[in-house]
User: Fold these one by one.
Assistant:
Number 1:
Amino acid sequence: MKSLIFPLNFMKLSEAEATTCREIVRHTEGLMARHVNKRFSLPLSIYLSRAGISPNQITFFNLLVGLLAGWVASRGGYLYLLMAAVLFQAVSILDGCDGEVAKLKVKCTKFGAWFDTIGDNLSFVVFITGVTFGLYRETHAIWIVHLAKLALANFAVLLSIMISYLLKQKSEHASLVTYEKEVVSRKAERQNPLVARAAHYGKFLVKKDFFSFLFFFLAVIDKPQAIVFFAALGSTAVALVLGIMTIRGWRSPKAIQEGTGQSVTGVVP
């Protein structure tokens, strides 16, 4: 049996806890999430589940931290930016705890998944908005505002497409990972090699574990304008790839299931 990651291998876990933790790590795709975030979130999730803290309480607390990160960033200046980036990185780590506690306590609910999805995306919007306000306070550069508008507009369109899909399909899961598994990954396989490769590798670059660490690094070297730039670039790139795959025509998930004989049920991380 595969050993547990550090520091879980030094903790006294029940057989059920150890098995659940292994499964969580095994289904984690993001590079930073697997090798960094899970080493912090899983031990914390163990203690939280034992303390009787509910997944929704964790989600609510994490949302408050995300809102605080955006407010701190809006103050402007290097120190505030750095503190905001630390908070946003903490949000990325804590983001895994609600789902992990839900799995450890076997209390996964659709409401909890929707609450988590809304909280995650609201934190992102508030953080980017906060960084933009903070940078504008210092520079009064209108271009940064327009760049942020582009990033948020693209993000809003992408989010509406994904959420509308989940609602239309009446998916058992409310996580955006379900959309990525049921639509993006499957449809990318039917595109030309260039589009398929862009979709396959690009999805790792726009995962929260990666861009939150990138934003933290850019904050450390005092490049707030780069944070807004990469937010705009990433959202635009995803919109373009998704648009190309849409224009080329997609078969419905039901058709895929009928044609392959495989289930299209995603896994909520």
Number 2:
Amino acid sequence: MNTPRSLLALCLAAMLGAASLPAQVNLSSLTPSGDTYTYTENFNITGVTSTTTITGAWTNNSQLAYTANATPYTKALPGWFLSMVSDPTVPTYDTSGTARIGSGGAGNSTATGLLGATFSHATATLNETALALRNTAATQSALGFVIKNDTATAVDTITLAYTGEQWRRENSAQTNTLEFQYKVVSSFTAASYNVWAETGWSDLNTLDFTSPTVGATTGANLDGNQAANRSLKSAALPVTLDSGDYLLVRWFYSDADTQNVPGHALGIDDLSLSMVAAIPEPSTYAAIFGALALGAVAVIRRRGQR
């Protein structure tokens, strides 16, 4: 065994492995059905068998790490980002910098320490979770998803669907809204991405989710899986994703909702994002066939000159 060469090979392999880590979800990682690519995420976790509050650590574009019943778990979430306006440079789930996964009856029963964002769960199905935000005027968050078209073909007919779920009702008649926005960019750097501070977004109000349950005199936990506390959202995004482009989407509390402190806990669940490979225009086909014809003529002429 040649130790120096082996060591060099290991170093190169490590460097290549690090370089290959995606800065988002790549379209090529999805298995198409015909000409349609579909990304799905239900945010479900495993290992939760009690109603004890569980805390964990969130890592942008990577995972949620948590411990349940003395066993460590990870929920892989590549392409997902979270940031808070109180400290936008540090991805966090609440004011203590941790994620919380449920507590007590339905959703989160502890009102304090759950600002920013949280995983919530229902009593009957502890592992059936949703990614939720719960903001105040001082601590506001945004969560987002990034996908890159790393194929050679443009994609269009882009449709996003998800279920909006309310996991807590505060003692206020005011509604809260998770606003949805999107944008397409030609370059993206995950390490410096701040989903809250990013600018240049476009609104798509059809995909906003407004709290369906309000008007109580006291706050209460809700089961976001109940029909009265959830709503299916679906809409087509009016964009085309060319080869090399990135699609960025995000959810955040409406600015008008900062009057309600703290706000209702609103989450997203069962997300689906479908994209269809674009069909070239007839003029494109004509250009291709023309180029092929010219190439064939050139080959014939060269052969004739021999």
Number 3:
Amino acid sequence: MNSNNNTTISSIYEVCIGVPDAISAIQYWQQFGYRIGEIGELTATTAYQLYRVNSPLQTIRLYHQNADHGLIRLMIWQNPTSTGLGVSSMKTKGNRWATTYFWNIVESK
């Protein structure tokens, strides 16, 4: 195989973050140079097939400069299954997590 044709993803392609409000989250990430990319929606049926969550879903991919990995996908569930992790510990065996707490940055303006 020609190494120039290698399409293997060797690092984290994107981090998915569930957010209750897309506008606040977009404003936060724009402060770090991210910009809005593709916006998509899933029906509750399709979201259940993919994520086992019976709720319509809107997603917004955020790009950073010319990066092709390390992207962010905001996920806005119409009917979230819980309030999320908030600022509690995310230490879970077998999972990779990335997070940031941003309310203080947004509110400081």
Number 4:
Amino acid sequence: MAKTAWPGTLVLVAGVLLCAAVEVAVGAKRVSISDDLRDVDEVFGIATRWTNVLRTGSVAAKFVAVDFGTLMFTMDRGQDIAELKEFILSQPEAYEFKIGDQVFRRPGDPPLDQVVEMLQKQKSQDSDSRPYKSRVEL
């Protein structure tokens, strides 16, 4: 029989996707952090700040920066998940988060994949419609 290191401890591991210029596509009021302006220290700072705020509210969750757009969190007490969900979705930097295959986002917000696709289409249309000056005009 296999033994676990912490019997009776539930550990939830999930990811939080940070928004980057998503408010333009969905019309929400959120802080825009473009990917080229976000650095490792900023993402690490978000993870540290969220961990500390939740700790003061007696929610044992720890956030870790995975990349420029993703945080991972772990928590020992599954009963705190409702508070965690409310906290994450109230943060301007968060767009959605996943626990296993289940995705949580604010009501009315489209999936992140659709938003990214919409932003890419808009960006390509903007670059195609830019008028350029001919060499004669210059």
